[in-house]
UniProtKB/TrEMBL annotation:
The keyword Electron transport applies. PROSITE patterns: 4FE4S_FER_1, 4FE4S_FER_2. Residues 260-289 form the 4Fe-4S ferredoxin-type domain. The chain crosses the membrane at residues 42-62, 89-110, 163-180, 200-217, 338-356. Gene3D superfamilies: Alpha-helical ferredoxin, Immunoglobulins. The keyword Kinase does not apply. Keywords: 4Fe-4S, Electron transport, Iron, Iron-sulfur, Membrane, Metal-binding, Transmembrane, Transmembrane helix, Transport. One of its GO terms (cellular component) is plasma membrane. This is Cytochrome c oxidase accessory protein CcoG. It holds the Pfam family Fer4_18. NCBIfam families: ccoG_rdxA_fixG. It comes from Pseudomonas cavernicola. GO terms for molecular function: 4 iron, 4 sulfur cluster binding; metal ion binding.
Length: 471
């Protein structure tokens, strides 16, 4: 019979640093504490600017129309003095790619600062948290209200909070939909209950989405729904700036009196007040190291700095720093990876600006008639075409149509036309073969449309002329 060695479970507990479960780990509701500081102000001013741009731009006019309007029905996109058409969609694709590379550059440089300062999910979550604080009070009051049984006071506060949330959500939805439907008519129709079914659906959809995402889901969107939080770590290196806790300086943690000789007691600068946890919008403890949940908002930096000031300690126990600096080295901001992203980003921006400046302000599409060819009354071979001409400028313009290097071919029909801003004309034309015989049965023609007021504005399109092999 095999003799068993008796085993005894030994629990090692550090009484000075007891294990705590953060709100994020416990799955509890996250109630953030009020705080102040540099990064809070930076985020506040940045969010205010973004709100002003988002809500204000929709109400700007440019001449007799809305300054920024994506008219999906008319397939025209107005951005101040410029009009874009579906043919310009490649520019939108290029802009999105530039934004992606810009995000990569920022991430390599300073981690998830986009998430903490500019991401709409974060910005609207801060607004909803502010509304919560105004109506239900600060952190401790909200926690007590959550635990309290239902009463008239609790019902009124909760009702007021959700009403304010819905008001912000509705304003957000109206502003967003207002970029696709003229916002003045949209708001008017809403208040007189004449909103069309399509607009009503999208206003309801975005109101609900804003209310759920910023009011209920909050940090869960960042953690479970946003793909950026998943692939960000592969873009970090030892020189990336992140919100980090200086463990070498802060450990061991523990409470102490302000003027005590805490070094003699083996304590670090961290007094274990958990203020960094209480202000965190994702409910994590930054002292546990770099985490997927951290959005680099800097709230814990402001909270910790305020505590350090009160204790008379040096600021920066929690700060933006790199892994290299925490290990005692020096942070290298200019490094090949970052410079590579910067070079590609600058080249792409330059190419985009060039494409934007040189894009043709007139569009020409040529469609050949289904018939191969026909013989006209003069005995000439004739092909029929339909030319679609679009005036992409903001002014009425006159144009002339021609064939480039026409050779034995001659354009028949209207040669000149005048188009209003944004007007589209489908123009039927014919081309005849003036010689008895073409060089081949199928030849390429180059149609060209030129602005008479500005000859530099011109565009060409190709089509095919078909004639009999033997004539």
């Amino acid at each position: 019979m095999t003799e068993r060695i008796p085993a005894k479970i030994v629990e090692t507990i550090d009484r000075r640093n007891p294990v705590r479960v953060t709100p994020a780990q416990a799955g509890d509701a996250i109630h953030t504490r009020s705080f102040s500081g540099f990064f809070r102000n930076l985020r506040l001013y940045g969010a205010g600017l973004l709100f002003l741009l988002f809500f204000g731009t929709a109400w700007l006019n440019w001449g007799d129309r809305q300054a920024v309007l994506w008219d999906l029905g008319g397939r025209k996109f107005y951005i101040f003095g410029a009009t874009f058409w579906p043919q310009d969609f490649i520019l939108l694709s290029a802009l999105l790619i530039i934004c992606a590379f810009g995000l990569f550059f920022i991430t390599v440089l300073a981690g998830r600062v986009w998430c903490g300062y500019s991401c709409p999910q974060s910005v609207w979550t801060w607004v909803f948290m502010w509304a919560e604080k105004v109506i239900e009070g600060d952190r401790n009051q909200r926690i007590k209200l959550d635990a309290a049984p239902w009463s008239v006071n609790k019902l009124l506060r909760r009702s007021a909070k959700h009403t304010l949330w819905l008001a912000v959500s509705l304003a957000t939805a109206l502003a967003f939909v207002g970029y696709f439907t003229p916002i003045r008519e949209l708001v008017r129709d809403l208040f007189i209950f004449e909103l069309d079914l399509s607009s009503a659906f999208w206003v309801f959809f975005f109101t609900t989405a804003t209310y759920l995402n910023a009011g209920w889901l909050r940090e869960k969107v960042c953690l479970h729904m946003c793909p950026y939080s998943r692939f960000q770590s592969v873009m970090f290196d030892e020189n990336t700036l992140n919100v980090s806790y200086d463990a070498a300086r802060g450990e061991g943690r523990g409470a102490r009196k302000k003027d005590a000789d805490y070094k003699a007691e083996g304590l670090g600068d961290c007094i274990d007040c958990t203020m960094c946890v209480q202000v965190c919008p994702t409910g994590i403890d930054i002292r546990d190291g770099l985490q997927l949940d951290c959005i680099s908002c800097g709230a814990c930096i402001d909270a910790c700095d305020s505590v350090m000031d009160k204790m008379g300690y040096q600021r920066g126990l929690v700060r933006y720093t790199s892994e290299q600096a925490l290990a005692g080295g020096k942070t290298h901001l200019l490094r090949p990876r970052l410079l590579g992203y910067a070079a590609v980003l600058l080249m792409m921006i330059g190419a985009f600006v060039w494409a934007l400046e040189t894009r043709p302000l007139v569009s020409l599409d040529v469609t050949k008639d289904r018939g191969l060819f026909r013989e006209n009354s003069q005995g000439q071979i004739e092909n029929i075409y339909t030319l679609k001409v679009i005036n992409k400028t903001q002014e009425p313009s006159s144009y002339v149509l021609s064939l480039v290097d026409s050779g034995p071919f001659e354009l028949q029909g209207t040669r000149e036309l005048r188009l209003e801003p944004g007007e589209i004309v489908d123009l039927p034309l014919s081309v005849v073969l003036t010689s008895e015989r073409a060089a081949s049965s199928s030849e390429t023609l180059h149609f060209e449309v030129t602005n008479l007021n500005d000859p530099d504005i011109r565009v060409s399109a190709k089509s095919t002329f078909v004639s009999p092999i033997n004539r």
